[in-house]
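Exercise 4. Each item below gives a protein and its sequence. For each, produce the structure-token representation.

Item: Putative multidrug resistance ABC transporter ATP-binding/permease protein YheI (Jeotgalibaca dankookensis).
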Amino acid sequence: MCQMFNVILKLKTFFSRNKKRYIISFFTMIASNIFSVLIPYIIGRMIDSIVKKQLTSLLLFKYTGAFLLSLIAAYLFEYIWSYYLFTGSAKLQRDMRLTLMQHFLRMRASFYEKFRVGDLMARATQDVRAISDTVGYGMMVLMNATLFLTTIIATMGVSVSWTMTLLSLFPLIFLAYLFGKVGNMVEERYTIAQKSFSELNNDVLEVVDGTRLIRAYAKETVYLEKFQKQTESMLKKNNQVAKANALFAPLVKIFITLSNVIGFGYGAYLVSRQNLSVGDMIAFQMYLGMIVWPIISIGELTNVLRQGSASMIRVEEVLNQGDDMEEKGSKVIASKKDIVINDLSFQYPTSTNHNLKNIEVIIPKGKTLGIVGKTGSGKTTLLRQFLRQYPLGEGEFKYGTDSVLNYQPTHFQSLIGYVPQDHILFSRSVRENIAFGKEGASDQEIMESVKIASFEEDLAKMDQGLDTVIGEKGVSISGGQKQRISIARALIKNPDILILDDSLSAVDAKTEQKIIANIQNERAGKTTIISTHRLSAVRRADEIIVLEDGRIIERGTHLELLEKKGWYYTQYLRQELKEGDEE
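Answer:
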């Protein structure tokens, strides 16, 4: 039972908020049990009256009335406690999933490096359901079966014979010991099966996300065979759990049969010596029959508790895991300020070397910073520091004269409009995807952001215009269209700081220049940060920094960098030559 109490202790806040529900369940359960055990007692008294030839019409009417009253009362009280217990179980599922979702939304990138999405899905579904079963069915058995069993045993001892009761129940001591052994086996096997389910979830999500790539490389058969092997493995592990669970029912039948044999044999002996009436003997056998359900339920309770305990550990592991972000500040941002980075170095949790080294950048308010460099140079890593996706490294990151850590995170984040490399679009209409950037945005505001993102012509060609559903992750539109919808979504927010992370790679040079010109015209006086491989996108930037291996190796305006004839100059000539050849 310690597993049950551990789970209850960990859910004490939930039980505290819903104590009225469980108090009602407890007392109606006691009432139901009392009326249930009265039924064999009434039958026993009626049989004794028949044997002694004392049964009259009036007495028969009283016994029948008492029997029906007890039956109806037992039913009504059982309905009440069942309703309150199992609606409480459903409420717990809702609360736990809400808690998990809140946790998922608060966590930053480092958290998702430790847990894969499929694993989190498994914990938020099957594991939460197992905990809910513990609170619903588990609480029912713990409260009802134990109360019912205690009531029956007390009634057997008081109304029939304590000696006969203790002898009949002696085999159940060995049954309790075996329940503990089998329960340990269930918990161990269930934990293994849940881990297997998490792994399968992870792989299924990857296959669904990469299905077009898998088909392009004709790898369907390979992945199907892999999936079949995983499902076979999971089937075997779940079968092992089922085998352990299947041991409970036969054990109960064996030991309950022994109890019946002892009870019937000793009872017959007492009746023959006239120490026990026939009615008491029949009532006792009925009580033994009523014990079967609580004993079987306690066996199932062991199973539910073990699974619930294992699932609670898995859910707690997620909820207790933070993202290692720094303590939150309390200041509120009241005005636009310069962004100042002094001697900033950063290293990913899984990296062996620094990914950013001694970065020095000042972005005056309202200015544009360009960030360029070859693949893997640290451009996106630097932007992640702006976005506060990872803890700050060594050095200073200030907004104005205060560290960004001094401000409330929501205030600093509210300044930023972000367009990532991987464009996250929802399986909704174009309107809903763009309006995601600003709650309650009007169609006029949406169309203004569409115009700045140079998406007007594409939108006009769509059958339903703004109401066109773009499919999950934008599956029904091109890469360039995804990018421009993402840009429009960031622009409709009209952010003080706009961050474009290689967000124009899928559009042609002409469209790129049009979008950049629109952004600069519409965002005069606002800060813009552009990370890109295509140097033409940062030609108008107030300052451009060139990164290599996490260090700034060049900095200046477009013309100043060309005069230095370093990496920027060489790369610019190559790109100009390539664009000339394409033209």
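Check: The radius of gyration is 36 Å.
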